[in-house]
Design goal:
The chain is an all-alpha fold and 219 residues long. It is built from ten helices and no strands.
Amino acid sequence: MTDARSDSLSELLGGRRGAVDATIPPLAFAVGWLVSGNRVEWGAAAALLAATLVAAFRLNRGGKVTAVVGSILAVVAGSLVALITGRGEDFFVVQLLSNIASALAWAISILIRWPLLGVVVGTILGQKTRWRRDPDLLRAYSRASWVWVFLQYTLRTAVFALFWWTGSVTALAVSRVALSWPLVAVVVAASAAVLRKSLPPDHPGLRHPRAPELADKSQ
């Protein structure tokens, strides 16, 4: 019988490479903005150049085209917003809004009993919706998903909103890095711990959803 501990949530979710790559354009924007004397055009140009170089590198290493294109589009969107408003901090508005949307989406998914952590991991494991028919897994994924709501998306929203409101471009860039993979690693570890503690001792693990009648007998 496979212990739930053997199912590495970090290995299943991955994402370190993408999270690191996503921090390079914002840093480039801040550097270009500072070096040019707070000129948004230079910051945007630096961010777009950095995004293009990262995309080329990842494609050359066999990265997924959809992920690469998505990353570039996010940088393009942030650059356009900043260029239109003329405010350097607005380059990070897209990131701020995406975290607000993510917090709401994850919270709603838990309330309607479709926790997104279960959806993501279940899809990766090829389980489709079988995990939802296991009451123990459904409960565990629901509890662990709250970790993502508060420790990742709500925290990011609060920090980004504070620095955006005060117009601190450098602080936004630094927090963008600090709240990327380092925070994701903490969130993955914390949610994995919640998953492990939420499952009964005799549960076979994330890879083996149990039928409802088997779950009921274990209570």
